[in-house]
Amino acid sequence: MDTDMDQIYQTDVGNLLAFNPNHRFPSTPSSREELVKECVTEGTKLVQAIADTLFNFPSTESVDGPLVQLPPPTTKLPREKHLPRPKPPTKWEEFALKKEAKKDKIVSDETTDKFKRRHGYDRVNDDNDIPVIEAKASDEPGEDPFAKRLDDKKKRVGKQEKNRLQNLKTAAKAGALPSHVQLAATALPISGTKTQPQKIGKDALGDVAGLAATSTASGGKFDKKLPGEKPPKKQGKHHKYLPVVPRYGWVDEEKEQTNKVLGKLLSKHSHEILNVGKAINMYNDKKEKKKSGRSDKLKPKKDITKKKPYANKAN
Amino acid sequence: MRPLDENETTVVFEKIFKFVGNNLKNIVENPSHEGPEPEPGRYCFRLQKSRVYYVSESLVKRATNISRKSLVSLGTCIGKYTHAGSFHLTIMSLNLLAANAKHKVWLKPTSEMSFLYGNHVLKGGLGRITDSIVPGDGVVVFSMSDVPLGFGIAAKSTQDCRKLDPNGIVVLHQADIGEYLRDEDEL
């Protein structure tokens, strides 16, 4: 319609969308029909705006008419699913945020003055390497300092394990765990949580069991199964081929298979055995022969007009 | 070498059925007198390196003594599987098909050579043709002296053949015995 109105309309040709942000009803419409009329007139203006922009695009010829390549859409559509929920930071991560310590993998050892790795084989401060522990004033007599070190270590390990479980629980509460870890977390004793843990479906449970089974050397084939647990589904293609030569004394499976296939095929095409056209022709021929009463064209024809010698009874 | 599984058997039988119809039963249950056993054995189909062979059972038993890598061929090769998984009948199945064919076509001596070079059968080269042919049927091509020359797919029914102009295609060429010379390497 008016070219200056085009600038006022917001058009997104990629989505074939036109929007008039400045539309105001001049007066409140008195009836439904008036409202409808008003909407239709406004709508036609918007559609005209879209059509104008479309026809301004370069078009290629096609079978059905001119073809126009639409530009990519500019309207941003809202997201379908929620953003991934962030995992709550673990206790260590919180601590690390406060204390920005950088831990090297290779540390200098005090006793041997060499560079050893922090964890693993031949590590720094290994418990087995300490030859002598000096007695301190706070030590009680009769206490084994080596045993004490071992005890301390065990306590630290236990504490760490508890922390790990706590981290899992908080993450499970926040809903930020993948399904197989979620399963491990829900098996923990959770006390005092009001939120019901998400129930994992049968398929997910089966998948998790399969995942766990792959960590065994035999792929979970000989694992003890709970009562009611089904054996794992076969994964991947499974071909069971028949033996090349039928085993002596056993049923010939290949023969059975070929017979079965043959039977199926023949029964599928059994409707073609009877050639209907030919049968009809033969039937019609037979009928005509019967009608005319002549079984063989080669037999001499009876001449009805020929008079017999005794026909004249007048004598 | 292994027997065909069910899907493969259906595919092969369907292809052969197009040519022989119900005589397929005769092919499958053909008694073979090849082995030293007194009672006749059967013929069976075996797959080796994506080629399907029609062998008697006694021969198969003896072929198991040859390792898979050294086994080149056994019995009669009737066709092969392509890379994509479809099955094609090759010329070497001609004897089997010709003996049990349902639809036959005889060629005039003038057009024999054309067919043997791989061209389709035109109406002008047609000598005799069996009736009740449906387009899409398998047809075995013979010379006038009843020598099987090859096989193909019927393009027109017998009735339509009569109305065709002399350059119309009657049988689409699939295989001919000239291939023994032309495609020697591929067989």
TrEMBL record, chain A:
Listed GO CC annotations: nucleolus; preribosome, large subunit precursor
Predominant subcellular localization, coarse grouping: nucleus
Family: Belongs to the RRS1 family.
GO biological process: endonucleolytic cleavage in ITS1 to separate SSU-rRNA from 5.8S rRNA and LSU-rRNA from tricistronic rRNA transcript (SSU-rRNA, 5.8S rRNA, LSU-rRNA); ribosomal large subunit biogenesis
Basic residues bias locations: 304-315
Residue stretches of biased makeup (Basic and acidic residues): 145-164, 221-232, 293-303
Chain intervals for the UniProt region annotation (Disordered): 65-91, 106-164, 214-240, 281-315
Keyword list, A-Z: Nucleus, Ribosome biogenesis
PANTHER family for this protein: RIBOSOME BIOGENESIS REGULATORY PROTEIN, RIBOSOME BIOGENESIS REGULATORY PROTEIN HOMOLOG
Protein name (Swiss-Prot/TrEMBL): Ribosome biogenesis regulatory protein
Role of this protein: Involved in ribosomal large subunit assembly.
TrEMBL record, chain B:
Gene3D superfamilies, alphabetized: 3.10.450.220, PUA domain (2.30.130.10)
Gene Ontology process terms (BP): ribosomal large subunit biogenesis; ribosome assembly
Residue ranges occupied by any PUA domain in the UniProt entry: 103-178
Key word Plastid present: no
Recorded GO MF terms: RNA binding
InterPro entries named in the record: NIP7_N, Nip7_N_euk, PUA, PUA-like_sf, PUA_sf, Ribosomal_synth_fac_NIP7, UPF0113_PUA
Major site of localization recorded for this protein: nucleus
SUPFAM superfamilies with a match to the protein in the record: Pre-PUA domain, PUA domain-like
UniProt entry tagged with the keyword RNA-binding: yes
Keywords in alphabetical order: Nucleus, Ribosome biogenesis, RNA-binding
Compartmental location: Nucleus, Nucleolus
Annotated PROSITE patterns: PUA
Cellular-component GO terms for this entry: nucleolus; preribosome, large subunit precursor
Top-rank lineage group of the source organism: Eukaryota
UniProt subunit comment: Interacts with pre-ribosome complex.
Function, in words: Required for proper 27S pre-rRNA processing and 60S ribosome subunit assembly.
Similarity comment: Belongs to the NIP7 family.
Protein name as it appears in the record: 60S ribosome subunit biogenesis protein NIP7 homolog
